Amino acid sequence: MNITFKSAVKNLVVFSTALFSTLTVAQSKLAIVIDDVGYHPKEDAAIFAMPREISVAIIPSAPYAQARNQEAKKQGRDILIHMPMQPLKQTRIEEGGLHLDMSAEQVINRVQKAKNIVTHAIGMNNHMGSAATADKPLMTHLMNALRTQHLFFLDSRTIGRSVAGKIAKEQGVRSLDRHIFLDDSNEFSDVQRQFQAAVQYARKHGTAIAIGHPRKNTVAVLQQNLRHLPSDIQLVGMGSLWRNERIVPPKPFILLFSDVPAPTSIAPYEPIPLLRGVPK
């Protein structure tokens, strides 16, 4: 009997240690933003069927922009304005975008119009914008406008010499940077490799921000990997990073037992109303 008791105690200690280790595992943050939302109902629906921690960036001029804005809000999903901005190449951008040499008033007007459409946005990121985000005057106007609208800025980092983060800091605007592009290539294997790169980046640096698009293989990779996300990686919305929330691991589950016998286990046995299992 003594051997059985010692064995039980040993097993309990092992179980408690394993449970404590599981509950206190260090976690890193992974935030995923899906750009170009608002154009294709089928692809958008696949994104909106994913966990609400997946943030969406909506282009204001997209035909379904207002509908996606309302849908995301209803789900409790974080929303960004995906603002078209001038690229280095002579590529036409969507209506309502930002161009070089715009005045402060013009920028404020366009940001306000975008916010009137994507009303529940908490931040903004750039659609294209390799020329725009490297332009100090334009970024100064933009950050002033974002501060007025209480929006943060996510730099998609479409150019290495972006000044957006530096100007944002100077203007008192919270700014974050994209770390990984999931789908520069649309090949499934390439998107899969980029997802794993985002996981590894999160483990190394504590946080990773990945940007993708509502495309077939991107959707497939996310559906597959989010079902089996490693236990040390926590999927978070962009709002969590904006607010600089910390991961608080759950407290260990500890059971405390009293060594005083229960009244019903001591003779004489007397029935107690509403207490099940008491012999009469």
UniProtKB/TrEMBL annotation:
It comes from Rodentibacter genomosp. 2. Residues 1-26 form the signal peptide. CDD domains: CE4_DAC2. It holds the Pfam family Polysacc_deac_2. Keywords: Signal. This is Divergent polysaccharide deacetylase. PANTHER family: DIVERGENT POLYSACCHARIDE DEACETYLASE SUPERFAMILY, UNCHARACTERIZED YIBQ-RELATED. One of its GO terms (biological process) is carbohydrate metabolic process. The lineage of its organism: Bacteria, Pseudomonadati, Pseudomonadota, Gammaproteobacteria, Pasteurellales.
